Amino acid sequence: MNGGSLGIRSGSYGSLDKPQQLQQQQNGGSNHLLPIQSTIRTKPAKMFKEKDRFLHWIRKSVGRRKVGMLLLCVISAAVFIWVLYVGKIMACFSGEDAQESDQVPNMSISPNISATVRKQNTTTLVFPPPPPSHFLGYSLPPGHPCNTFTLPPPPADRKRTGPRPCPVCYLPVEEAIALMPKLPSYSPVLKDLTYIYENPLTKNGEFGGSDFGGYPTVAQRTDSYDIRESMSVHCGFVRGTRAGRNTGYDIDEVDLDAMDQCRGVVVSSAIFAAFDNIQQPSNISEYSKRTVCFFMFVDDETEAYLQNSGQLGDSRKVGVWRIVLIHNPPYTDGRRTGKIPKLLPHRLFPNARFSIWIDGKLELVVDPYQILERHLWRKNATFAISRHYKRFDVFTEAEANKAAGKYDNASIDFQIDFYKSEGLSPYTLDKLPITSDVPEGCVVIREHVPISNLFACLWYNEVDRFTSRDQISFAIVRDKIRAKTNWTVNMFLDCERRNFVVQKYHREVLEKMEHMSPPPPLPLPPALPEILPPPRVPQETPMRRGIVRRGRRVGPRRHRKVIAGGRQGEPR
């Protein structure tokens, strides 16, 4: 087969078309194709024959009338389908036109013709806004008593001038439970927070630190205040991936499993060296007893005291409190060890959403859900703590700690001088709406979100590096985070704190009061000899001169003044 056989085939699928054959003969039998060839095909005759056979079969099968009716039905069905299709398209265009007509009422069709598009009764698809991904807060309905609640003036009691509780407007327990957020609160800037794990430890820190919290350098400390979307910081438990497992401050596996099951609200406390008696909460709803986790952390000495006194049995519970024994406490100072459950509950309870810390000497007298609603949810806050009832300046607080011997003066002065070099200044009204730089740290209320977890970690790092007096380091951490994220802490009145917790005496003070016998009564003075009173001597009363007649005294005669003409019967 040569090149001249390529071309447009005829309808008989035979040889090439005659015009092309003639053209090839005129070209001298050349087998080269022309630059431009026609691509128009003629309809094959075989297709006409098949079509004629099909129509002939239809006419043969049915009569002419039936053929007409069949064609009419086919045409009607085609028209019906076409109308539906066109109507659907027009409906879509009309919906778009209606949306456009709401925005642009006048539309130019041509340079010389203008038309006004009127809004017609057409159904437009309105998609609901996407659901929020964070808790956005709420407001109580208008007219609610708590909206207009104000603190009454303190009672005029000159005998009691110290701090005292004040009334607080709580919601009923059922309403507070219903208002518990379903979503976590918003965490500004920081979205992902992880914790540094070091094994073995690197002791490159310039000063401070411990085997439990690590030895971060001053440069690492500065970097931890550069708030970013994803961060990794020191936050205690640096020698293990799970807090409480071979990290110091070790916890039994059965207790760790119970702590992992807490997915809602946690109330925690701690007693070390049997310093306090366990205080059972009061006014707690049955729902809170079922859903809130109450955990009390103790050391060996406290556990032995509870067992010897018959309070602790095989259930590992004392009242509502689950007792958790701490092994290998990382510090010899019980106050510093107590800062671990106080400031790092998000490490101990990784699945919990909210936590309330109370010191071991306090008794909780208000339901936890009411406390959370009042100080977190209603305020749309993620961290709440009461301010000090008397002091609001860090420098004043440092001097008070030195005067009371709470810590050695040199360590307090070193910490204050370091903070001064970083820009810490005395509190002034320029810090408003911040009302205080000194908290009353016996109660901490918080939500476990990345930004509040970071604040707690950095606050703990200051306690681990400097003194254990957390009131001194509170303000510097809060202000550094606030400068980067505009996040702050809800500092409520100390009298409001005293409304939901009651302070009790330490155990040793109570024991002294119980064993202290009342003082013996004072001896009576010796009896004095009986001295008879001297006999009464009647005293003579001076008698007036006169004559006594028949038991009565008659005064002396007096000369009567006789007036001339004054006698009876005589004219005057």
From TrEMBL:
UniProt-annotated stretches for the region Disordered: 17-36, 530-572
Membrane-spanning intervals of the chain: 67-85
Domain TOD1/MUCI70 glycosyltransferase-like: 193-506
UniProt entry keywords in alphabetical sequence: Membrane, Transmembrane, Transmembrane helix
Extent of Basic residues compositional bias: 546-562
Record-given protein name: TOD1/MUCI70 glycosyltransferase-like domain-containing protein
Native source species: Linum tenue
Lineage: Eukaryota, Viridiplantae, Streptophyta, Embryophyta, Tracheophyta
